[in-house]
Amino acid sequence: MSSQFEVREHPDPTFMVDFFTLFPIIMVIYMGLFFGWFWSIAIGLQKHIPIELRLNLKKFKIFFFIPLLYILFFMMLISSTFYNVSSGDHAAAGIMSKMMLFIVPMHLFSMFCMFYLLYVSSKTIKTVELQKNVSFSDFIGEFFMIWFFPIGIWFIQPRINKIVSETSTLND
Fold first, then answer.
1. Phi and psi at residue 74, in whole multiples of 5°?
2. Tens digits of residue pLDDT in 33-52
C-alpha cells in the first residue's frame, strides 16, 4: 500500500502546497465562528446586565480586531511564502526570516488580546448570572472553559441559552 506521506528519494513538494491550500479556508471558518462567539457573548449579553454594572467595551472592540487582522496578515504571508518557494523563488524564505522581527511581537500581542477577549467574555457571563460586580475568582471557571473552546462550549453555551431564554420570557 502506497502513501503520499512515505519517504522518497525526491519527494514532490507540490503535494504539501496542495495540502495547505485548504488550511486558510479552514482557519477563516474556525476563527470566524470562534470570534463571532466572543462577540455575541461580550456584546450580546450586555443588554442582560443592569446599566450600572455594564462593562466598558471600547478596549474589547479594539482588542477584538487586532488578532483578526494579525491572523489574516499571517495567513497571507505564509501563503505567499509557500507559493514563492514552490515556484522556485528561494529569496522568499529569507524575507520570511526578516519578517520574524515583526511577527514574534505581533503574535505575543495577539495572544494577549485573545486572553483579554476570554477575560471579558467570561466576566460578562458571570455578571449576567449573578447580576452583581464580579472578581476574577468568581469567573475563573468560565475563563478556562472558554479557553478550552471545544470542550467548554458544551458547558457554557447551554448556560447562555438559558440566560437569553429566561430574559426573553420575562420581557414578553
1. -65, -45
2. 889 999 999 999 998 888 89
Instruction: Locate all alpha helices (DSSP H) within 43-90, ordered by sequence.
Output: 58-86
Residue with cell 449579553: 45
**Residues in CB range of 22: below 8 A, 6 or more apart:** none
CB 48, CB 127: distance < 8 Å: no
Residue 122, C-alpha cell as written in the block: 467570561
132-154 pLDDT, tens digit per residue, is 999 999 999 999 999 987 788 89
Q: What secondary structure does DSSP assign to 132-145, as a single string?
A: S---HHHHHHHHHH
Q: CB within 8 A of 80, min separation 6: which ones? A: 92
The pTM for the full model equals: 0.77
Q: How far is CA 45 from the centre of its chain?
A: 19
Cα 52 to Cα 50: distance, rounded to the nearest angstrom: 6
Distance CA 145, CA 155 (A): 8
How many other CB atoms are found less than 10 A from the CB of residue 42? Answer: 22
